[in-house]
Structures are given as C-alpha cells and as structure tokens.
Amino acid sequence: MSEFKAIAMFAKAVQLGSIRQAALAQNVTPQAASQAIAKLEQRLGVRLLHRTTRSLALTEEGQRFLENTQPALATLDRALAAAREGKDGIAGPLRIVGPKSSFAAILMPLLDEFCRAYPGIQPDVQLADGKWADPKAIGNWVLDRVDVGFRIGGSNSEGGIGRQLFPVQLIVCAAPSYLASHGVPATLVDLAAHRCIVLRHPATDRVVPWYLTVDGKVEHRQMSPAFSTNDIELELQAVLAGQAIGQLANFSAASHVRTGRLVPVLHKHMSADLGLHIYYGSRAAQPKRVRAFLDLAIARLHDSPNYVLSSKELATAQQKWARKPRK
Q1: Quick one: 101 and 57 in the same domain?
Q2: At how many degrees (to 10) do helices 2-16 and 60-88 cross?
C-alpha cells in the first residue's frame, strides 16, 4: 500500500511540477511527500527525479518508470471513480434474494417501477425456497454480496436489519364450485369430512401443517390430505379449480377473494403470526441505489391493502357468496 501511495505521489509531482503542490493535492505534508518519493527511489535502486529548490525533472529511469506505471494508475483512478459513482448515483447492479414460491408476483412490480425510474439499474435476482427461507442464511448475505433480502417467517434480524412489510395471513379458502358440491365447513371439526390440500415443504418434503388460531393462540394442525404438492402455485390452482379446500397465504389469495373466485371460510381461525420481512445492511454504508430501492419497497409493501385482508372484508366475502342464488 505504501508503494502505491509513493508511486501516486511521484506521478502527481511530475504532473504538477512540484513535490509541494503534489503534497497539497494528496493532503499530506511536503516533508512526507518528499520522504515517500525518496523511499521509493531507495527501494527501486534508481533515481527518478532531479530536484532543485525551484524545479524538478525526470531522470531517464524516471521517464521509463512513469510511462510503465501510468496505465495502472489510470485504471485505478477509473475504478475509484466508478465506486464513488455507484455509491452516489442510482445506477449499477442491485442484488436481491428471496423465496421462490409465489414471490415473483410481489417483487416484479417493484422492479418494474424501479427500473423504469432508473434505467441504469441492473437487477440480479435469486429466488430459492430452501436457501433463503433459512434465517441463518441472513448472516451470509455479506459474503454473497446481497444488497436486499426478503424472507417469509418470524422476525429474525441476525446479520442484518429486518423490518416486517406485511403480515402473512393464512386463510382457509375454497372455490364456489367446491362449496356448492361439498358444503361449507362451519367448524374446524367439519374439515375432517372435506377434501383438504396440503403443502409439502420444497426443501424438506415434509407436510406443512395448517396454522389455525384457536382461542387466541396459533395451533399447528396436520390435515388429512386428499391432495398434496410441493408447489404453492399448483396448490392455488387446485383450490381455484374446485379440487380441494386449502389454507392459502393472503398474497396468493387476496385478489381471488376480491373477485369472488375464492371464498374464505372459517375466517375466525385465520392466523397471521408470520410476516414478509425485508432485510438489509446498515443504511449509512449503502449505495444510493440500494437506499432508493428499500424506500420504494417499504412505501409500496408496508401493510399494503393489495395483500392484507381485514376481518370485515373476509366476513363480507363469505356472506356475499352465501347470498348468491344457486342454480
């Protein structure tokens, strides 16, 4: 490092024609600048500059050394400028990680809006249920050069700063065609007589229980499956097709509930102890592009009505279906 500084001081002295001026430009004392160049000459074993009290001139060895080092110094200057521009400008790579299942529909509108506002952004997105669902992986984000991460689950800020964007409501839903054929369960006990769909965890293949609120507490209940899958999108499509009744997350179900394609049932047992969280490092050291994306994500997703359904809205959706005439 000291040699790099000495070479830069030497080149600046030649450029400005004065070691004193080079010292001022590099924010060091003239004595320190002169000593750095002298030590460089000592290490090289050659004299680089002819010094007088009023001027300095390159020796023949100094001329060759300057010509050989200038390309490297120019490359270093460009790299430093690019790093400063990346910190201060909203452009460059933006590395994002998150869950794979059903998350693309949440993330893509954010990226579309952000990239249209800042065309110089280069998104690098990796979605994987196994890796980024594990809260321990958050601590490895720095090693993986991650700027922003998303995770569904409980709060865990190990290795980064975490903030919940919205609660993940788990809602028991069915298609109108299913309810017309199989009836509406009035209690949790009634579910034993229904065709239930369950999700197998994509990473472990274990059956995920239903999370149901009973007497103010969340219970994990294993359901007897008539249909099982390890894919959240297929689970949603099976419920929409009337093949089974399922417990779906609000970010998958909300739009279908509002259009009447899905009917919420047993909504008093909905659970919301999980959440969609966003994780990031210290804002003080972040490039401007990362801070801008964080601000957009929080503004668009924090308790977003696009995904969060109120208890009143769930009850109204069921009542609206119940009042419809049957053919």
Answers
A1: no
A2: 110
Give the C-alpha separation, 178 to 159, whole Å.
Answer: 45
263 and 255 in contact (C-beta within 8 Å)? no
**Position 150 in a domain:** yes
| 103 and 126 share one domain | yes
pLDDT at 226: 93
pLDDT at site 5: 86
Nearest to 103 by CA among 147, 174, 157, 165: 165
pLDDT-based confidence at residue 266 (cuts at 50, 70, 90): very high
Asked whether residue 265 is domain-assigned, the answer is yes
Distance between CA atoms of residues 113 and 39, nearest Å: 55
Which tokens hold the place of 56? Answer: 């300095």
45 phi and psi angles, rounded to 5 deg: 80, 20
Q: Is residue 267 part of a domain?
A: yes
For the chain, give the secondary structure using H, E and C.
Answer: CHHHHHHHHHHHHHHHCCHHHHHHHCCCCHHHHHHHHHHHHHHHCCCCEEECCCCEEECHHHHHHHHHHHHHHHHHHHHHHHHHHHHHCCCEEEEEEECCCCCHHHHHHHHHHHHHHCCCEEEEEEECHHHHHCHHHHHHCCCCCCCEEEEEECCCCCCCEEEEEEEEEEEEEECHHHHHHHCCCCCCHHHHHCCEEEEECCCCCCEECEEEEECCEEEEECCCEEEEECCHHHHHHHHHCCCCEEEEEHHHHHHHHHHCCCEECCHHHCEEEEEEEEEECCHHHCCHHHHHHHHHHHHHHCCCCCCCCCHHHHHHHHHHHHHCCCC
Average predicted confidence (pLDDT) for the chain: 86
Does 161 reside within a domain? no
85 versus 192: the higher-pLDDT residue is 192
70 with 7, same domain: the answer is yes
Domain span at 9: 2-88
